[in-house]
Amino acid sequence: MSSPDAKVHPTDNKVYPHDKEVVDQALDRVSSIDEKNIEGDGSSYIDGSEGVTQHDLDTLRHVADTLPYTAWLVLIVEFAERWSYYGTTNIFNNYIRAPLPRGSKDGRVIFDVANGVAGALGQGVQKSFALRNFWVYVTPFLGGILADTLWGRYKTIMIFALVCLSGHIILVGSASPSALAQPNVSLGLLVLSITIMGLGAGCIKANVSPMIAEQYTGRLRKETLPSGEVVIKSPTLTIQSIYLWFYAGINLGSCGAISASFLARDNGYWTAFLVPTCIFALVPLVLIAGKNQYVKTPPRGSVILESVRVITMCMSHRWSINPIRTIQNFRSEGFWDTAKPSFYEQGKAPVRITWDDDFVGEVHRTVKACQVFLFFPFFWLCYSQIDGNLGTMAAGMTLHGTPNDLIQNLNPISIIVMIPIFDKIIYPFLRRRHINFSPIKRIYAGFLVAGLAMLYAAILQKFLYEKSPCHDNEPSACVNADGDPWPAPVNVWVVSGPYILVGMAEIFASITSLEYAFTKAPKSMKSVVMAFSQFQTALSSALNFALTAVNVEQKFTWLFGAFAVTAWVIGTIFMISFRQLDRMEEQLNAIGTGQRDGFKEEEH
């Protein structure tokens, strides 16, 4: 994959108003580059590079650059935040779904520890799923807007880290024995803590992922390795590598849920929630420690409002009472032209146009990126099963001393193991073979693998129904005459397959979506675009909420099977819809990477 800095930028400041014109201009640019290199034997330097010629770019091996120190500091922040998040949410399923075990006052298992399941509130599967997911993926919009327009990313993360810490403290109080003795009080405190933690975590999520990539400021350059080989240090591959390791940090932090499962079962939920609260206290400390070293992007004033004005201006004359006609108008040639100053005669542009042609192009680019993310709710439908329904499935199996909600940690563990393999072996192998495994193709592969994980889960659930003493009448709640668990003679580790497959799907789709959001968004709108990509998880939760009636254990086989088919169908539609963007990958990366960052900073 070539660096975005490797492209010669247009000198006429034109933007891309529609797909056909984008393709034509891209081909013209490639042709002009080829002609230039034929005339100069490829000896001309690439614009924006450090002494790299087109011949170097075409013939030398491309490798990722070294990650800066501050990127690792941001990674520690994400690690601690994700430990606290998954160290609490991964045990929410049992905490909300299951009742207090026999003789327990704080959720710990007292009798039959080998097969017992920790619990507290006894609200059932449906309420458990409804309470846990939606809010934290809506709030990134607030964090993104505040960072891009008012506070900047660093200050936004710091403020909402303190907000999130207060939510963790309330959560610990909700799980105390005195609170659990009054279920309504405990449930009320839980909802309050989820609201506060969701606000804090969501606003952090929108800003940490772009902030870590912004720590890298290197340019396209040549470097001689100790072996004597001369290679190209590629910013594009460096960003890809940053997000691979960023995601590894996320999942290393999520392994904190391993201790949470045992703490809840053996010591009660207040202890299990206290540990991630202490871990989260590291976030503001690390932020303060690196305060003077971070690369900080300042807020850009009213860029969001200006973007809305550009979009509404382009849409204003293209509405029709016929919805199909409206869609055709929105996709027509020249849709973005009416918002560009160059569209009008000199001095006759509308007064409300306070931007230039480049800014319109960047808004167009942002919209294009957001269109890609619209397919992700269906991917997250598959992912959402690993922290809820698959745990419920595991509760109906023979545990042999393994907490049922421990198995889901195979997902982050598998990701941690696979990321170095993909980063150091698989992706470099594909590049050496000149196989263009572009972001669109990687996302499509993620949909396919996620569907395979759901197919595995559907077959396994059918098998569990047959083996459980209670058959399809809630195997997870099956008990004997004494009221103790009566599991199916199926080893709980059999359920590891979907967790590992979903982990692989995340490497293909989720990590790539972070990379795509960062590289395709103009600098002035990176947090908002990142928030939009994460908002798709909220839409997935809303879809799950709409499926509450069928989100019951007796229908898990059909539910998993339907998700598998949905992932394959939607993934295929995604690939067909964006195959044109896939061919334009490098050209899209090049927009807005010249001297201009995307907005007139002196005005804000």
UniProtKB/TrEMBL annotation:
<feature type="transmembrane region" description="Helical">
    <location>
        <begin position="185"/>
        <end position="204"/>
    </location>
</feature>
<dbReference type="InterPro" id="IPR018456">
    <property type="entry name" value="PTR2_symporter_CS"/>
</dbReference>
<feature type="transmembrane region" description="Helical">
    <location>
        <begin position="269"/>
        <end position="290"/>
    </location>
</feature>
<feature type="transmembrane region" description="Helical">
    <location>
        <begin position="369"/>
        <end position="386"/>
    </location>
</feature>
<comment type="similarity">
    <text>Belongs to the major facilitator superfamily. Proton-dependent oligopeptide transporter (POT/PTR) (TC 2.A.17) family.</text>
</comment>
<dbReference type="InterPro" id="IPR000109">
    <property type="entry name" value="POT_fam"/>
</dbReference>
<feature type="transmembrane region" description="Helical">
    <location>
        <begin position="442"/>
        <end position="459"/>
    </location>
</feature>
<keyword id="KW-0472">Membrane</keyword>
<dbReference type="GO" id="GO:0016020">
    <property type="term" value="C:membrane"/>
</dbReference>
<protein>
    <submittedName>
        <fullName>Uncharacterized protein</fullName>
    </submittedName>
</protein>
<dbReference type="GO" id="GO:0006857">
    <property type="term" value="P:oligopeptide transport"/>
</dbReference>
<keyword id="KW-0812">Transmembrane</keyword>
<feature type="transmembrane region" description="Helical">
    <location>
        <begin position="242"/>
        <end position="263"/>
    </location>
</feature>
<feature type="transmembrane region" description="Helical">
    <location>
        <begin position="406"/>
        <end position="430"/>
    </location>
</feature>
<dbReference type="GO" id="GO:0022857">
    <property type="term" value="F:transmembrane transporter activity"/>
</dbReference>
<feature type="transmembrane region" description="Helical">
    <location>
        <begin position="492"/>
        <end position="516"/>
    </location>
</feature>
<feature type="transmembrane region" description="Helical">
    <location>
        <begin position="158"/>
        <end position="179"/>
    </location>
</feature>
<dbReference type="InterPro" id="IPR036259">
    <property type="entry name" value="MFS_trans_sf"/>
</dbReference>
<keyword id="KW-1133">Transmembrane helix</keyword>
<feature type="transmembrane region" description="Helical">
    <location>
        <begin position="556"/>
        <end position="578"/>
    </location>
</feature>
<feature type="transmembrane region" description="Helical">
    <location>
        <begin position="528"/>
        <end position="550"/>
    </location>
</feature>
<dbReference type="Pfam" id="PF00854">
    <property type="entry name" value="PTR2"/>
</dbReference>
